[in-house]
Amino acid sequence: MSSERPIGQGTYRVAFSAEQWRERLSPQEYAVLRDGGTERPFTGEYEEVREAGTYECRACGAELFTAAEQFDARCGWPAFWAPTDSDAVELLEDTSLGMRRIEVRCAACGSHLGHVFEGEGFPTPTDQRYCINSISLRHRE
Known about the structure:
Largest sheet: 6 strands, antiparallel
Order of helices and strands: HHEEEEEEEEE
Helix content: under 10%
Low-confidence stretches: none
Structural class: mainly beta
Strand order of the largest sheet: 3-4-8-7-6-5
Number of strands: 9
Oligomer: single chain
């Protein structure tokens, strides 16, 4: 994945070596969170909108989104119109796959979460869709 900064190459509050991340995460979690992969659409556990709760980073536990910001985009991944706090995520230019996208990472540990898209016409307060991999999240009631 080509982005401004390789995963794990920044200064983050939560930092582990690649070996330590591999011990903490399953192979599938590592592939998405640390290698910048994407889970197949319509396969994640959080695609359906929840009525309540918060979503935290599966790698480090930082709060990222709430159910109040989640909406049904019918895109195959959980969709949110904004993070809980703008400081909860970092946004980086991603030029992989021959296109320009904006990658979303956890600001606490630098783990890959997904991408954010704008101008798709969803009736949300921000006209943004944070398209996030379910495997990058953990839901708490």
